[in-house]
Write a structure and sequence with these properties.
24% helix; HIT family, subunit A; alpha+beta; 4-stranded antiparallel β-sheet; 6 helices
Length: 258
């Protein structure tokens, strides 16, 4: 869960996660058929049978099989209806991040991407999204809904184009920056230097040697890495210092009250 905080540069609000626990890493995908027990029980499992779509849901120990789309509450929600009712003005304005965080698995095939899902499946996905929207807008305290599409942690690592560009940048001596899970792509391209940081748990897919969990941003030569959304400002400031020097770094840092 997190807080709603004000970005004094853009005058917009953002959600900053306060979760410090390490995510549990597994070789199994929690979104693949057969691994339903790794997630919260589904509130909706769409199953096609005899040319008809059935709306089912998991019970506590009985998981729906043969689903084409699955919806469940996130185990690591960034917003929650159980969030602490706390407000603050110092050192920055913040308020509770109240809400619901649901995950929609758009295909039972773990290798599917947005471009490979068939039009008929997309129609079903939209039906499910509409179902959740209607339900959410009946809930007290919900004033808007945001929908995000996630390609997964490995998308940059599996892109031949991205890997090629990273290798070219390294060969040309250019700066390379990566935050959250993106350092994994640098590792796959063999451009990650010895010292680095990343979103906690991703280091298990890279290497433990050289990983710095105690630092929000690590600069090793011309490769800059950072941990995640909550460290983005620190990451940006250190990029400015690296590229434009100490004076520009301090001027920007003071202007955004960082």
């Amino acid at each position: 869960m997190g807080d709603m905080r004000k970005d004094y540069v853009s005058e917009h609000f953002m959600i900053v996660s306060k979760k410090d626990d390490k995510a549990v890493v597994s070789k199994k995908s929690p979104f693949a058929p057969g691994n339903e027990s790794m997630t919260n029980p589904s509130v909706l499992s769409l199953v096609e049978k005899d040319g008809m779509l059935q709306r089912l849901q998991d019970s506590e120990d009985d998981y729906v099989e043969g689903w084409s789309i699955r919806v469940f509450e996130s185990k690591n929600p960034i917003v929650s209806i159980d969030t602490e009712n706390s407000y603050s003005d110092k050192p920055f304005y913040s308020e509770p991040a109240y809400g619901y965080h649901y995950v929609i698995v758009a295909s039972p095939n773990p290798k599917d991407t947005f471009s490979t899902i068939l039009p008929e499946q997309w129609s079903n996905v939209l039906v499910v999204v509409q179902d959740r929207l209607r339900w959410l807008y009946t809930q007290k305290g919900v004033t808007y809904v945001s929908i995000y599409g996630d390609y997964g942690d490995l998308v940059l690592s599996e892109s031949e184009n991205v890997q090629s560009i990273l290798k070219q940048m390294k060969d040309q001596g250019k700066y390379i920056g990566a935050i959250c899970a993106a350092p994994l792509a640098l590792h796959t391209a063999d451009v990650l230097n010895k010292d680095f940081t990343c979103y906690p748990s991703i280091e298990n897919q890279i290497r433990i040697d050289g990983y710095h969990n105690d630092q929000t941003t690590v600069i090793d030569g011309k490769v800059m890495t950072s941990k995640g959304v909550g460290t983005a400002i620190d990451f940006a400031l250190k990029i400015v210092r690296q590229l434009l020097g100490e004076s520009s770094f301090r001027e920007l840092k003071e202007s955004i009250l960082a």
